[in-house]
Amino acid sequence: MALLFALGNGEEVAALIILKKKVAGLSAEAFGRFVLRARRAARLSGRVNVLLTGSTEMRALNLRFRNRNKTTDVLSFPSDTFLNGTDKRPFAGEIAISADIARENAATLGHLAALEVKVLALHGILHLAGFDHERDNGQMARKEAILRRKLGLPVSLTERDDRDGHEPATSYSRSRLKSVRRKA
User: Using CA atoms, how far apart are residues 68 and 63, in angstroms rounded to an integer?
Assistant: First the structure.
């Protein structure tokens, strides 16, 4: 069962949060407010949709969009389009987060799983804002560290080494997502 929450002021939706997996201490409302704060801190305009799901679905998404048959902690799908309808602001994109990996990371790093989900969301938001830690010579890592401190979060993804064996977080162009959806 999924819990759906739309955060907005009645005229526009700033974030759509879908919780397919529950994480202790994380409500859809509180997570939606965090996503809005993080989006503003990253100076990202437009709506952000976030899916919190399990590792099985993350593996399927990673295979479908990146051709990698392994689970991952967070995927980002930046958009270059505007939403139709009354919301005239750009659609920033979508983020998918593995609740299972967030729990594992939190246990390993000694903090709450709810905080780890927020770390992953911030990381995804930075990808939506155009950062790419695989190619930017540390620019994303520096920005993430600054925002993590500002938002009261523990160690960021780009400051970690890849000890857990999971595929590292990544981002894709929205045009690739659209072309895959058209084929489906």
Answer: 5
Contacts 24+ apart (CB under 8 A), 26-29: 26/52, 26/113, 26/114, 26/117, 28/3, 28/4, 29/5
- Residue 79: partners with Cβ closer than 8 Å, 6 or more residues away: 46, 90, 91, 92, 93, 94, 128, 174
For domain 3-178, the question of CATH label 3.60.21.10 is answered with: no
pLDDT band at 163 (very low <50, low <70, confident <90, very high): very low
- Contact criterion met (CB below 8 Å) for 16 and 6: yes
Global pTM? Answer: 0.78
Mean pLDDT of 29-54: 93
Q: What would the two tokens of residue 177 be?
A: 């997502």
Q: What percent of the chain has pLDDT over 90?
A: 55
Q: Which of 116, 104, 99 is nearest to 165 (CA)?
A: 104
